[in-house]
């Protein structure tokens, strides 16, 4: 823990262009899917920046609206220069973080954690004492957070079955309980319903209010 206090973490959050992001939400939220994707990224970034173990957040994106939102929250934006996929974007962000913030650990964090709580993120980061650690998502097959200690390559292996891929690469899964907000990434309508139950951030809550208002023919309905 003492080392983490001396050298806090730099978080790298990759965000697709929201015009194409969260495609599995399209059936349930055809009119609000891009707004939801942007809201997820904004709420995730704001919650991450509120953790005392986070020194900075780098958002890798080519979406100009997302860039504006996260910059306003206090994050730095990197263009997705590789434009070759999620892992390549994370490697680009990790390289930038290592160059600018020497002596800090680097963390890849999912951009779709709208219920993320700073205290739970802090608990997860404090538990990342191995060279590389990761958090398994709630379904048990994916990864929402991958951390590499200072001087250690991030080596991201996100994608289908990433939990097994990260473990096979030598990363250590965290065995923490009570960090559901760190594990609740949102890909489907059912995921979003669960995130709402956990308590989503203000941007996501605003969009969900519009969704509920559209469904009932009213506006300004509380989430």
Automatic annotation (TrEMBL):
Identify the keywords attached in UniProt to this record, alphabetized.
Answer: GTP-binding, Nucleotide-binding, Nucleotidyltransferase, Transferase
Pathway(s) served: Cofactor biosynthesis; coenzyme F420 biosynthesis
Q: Which residues bind phosphoenolpyruvate?
A: 143, 159, 162
- List residues traversing the bilayer: none
Give me the reactions it catalyses. phosphoenolpyruvate + GTP + H(+) = enolpyruvoyl-2-diphospho-5'-guanosine + diphosphate
Q: Name one Pfam family in it.
A: CofC
Enzyme Commission code: 2.7.7.105
From the UniProt record, give one GO term of the biological process aspect: F420-0 metabolic process
The molecular function terms of the Gene Ontology recorded here are: GTP binding; phospholactate guanylyltransferase activity
Q: Which InterPro entries match?
A: CofC (IPR002835), Nucleotide-diphossugar_trans (IPR029044)
Task of the protein: Guanylyltransferase that catalyzes the activation of phosphoenolpyruvate (PEP) as enolpyruvoyl-2-diphospho-5'-guanosine, via the condensation of PEP with GTP. It is involved in the biosynthesis of coenzyme F420, a hydride carrier cofactor.
Q: Which family does it belong to?
A: Belongs to the CofC family.
Name under which the protein is recorded: Phosphoenolpyruvate guanylyltransferase
Q: Which gene encodes it?
A: fbiD
């Amino acid at each position: 823990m003492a080392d983490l206090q001396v050298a806090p973490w730099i978080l790298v959050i990759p965000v697709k262009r929201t015009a194409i992001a969260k495609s599995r939400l399209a059936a349930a939220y055809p009119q609000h899917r891009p707004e939801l994707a942007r809201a997820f990224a904004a709420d995730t970034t704001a919650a991450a920046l509120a953790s005392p173990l986070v020194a900075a957040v780098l958002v890798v994106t080519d979406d100009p609206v997302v860039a504006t939102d996260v910059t306003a929250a206090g994050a730095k934006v990197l263009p997705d220069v590789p434009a070759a996929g999620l892992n390549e974007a994370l490697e680009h962000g990790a390289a930038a973080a290592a160059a600018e913030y020497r002596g800090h650990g680097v963390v890849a964090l999912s951009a779709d954690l709208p219920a993320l709580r700073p205290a739970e993120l802090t608990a997860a980061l404090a538990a990342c004492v191995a060279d590389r650690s990761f958090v398994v998502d709630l379904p048990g097959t994916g990864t929402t957070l991958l951390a590499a200690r200072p001087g250690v390559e991030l080596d991201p292996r996100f994608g289908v079955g990433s939990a097994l891929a990260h473990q096979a690469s030598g990363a250590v899964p965290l065995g923490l309980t009570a960090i559901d907000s760190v594990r609740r990434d949102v890909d489907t309508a059912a995921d979003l319903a669960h995130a709402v139950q956990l308590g989503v951030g203000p941007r996501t809550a605003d969009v969900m209010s519009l969704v509920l208002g559209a469904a009932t023919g009213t506006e300004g309905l509380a989430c």
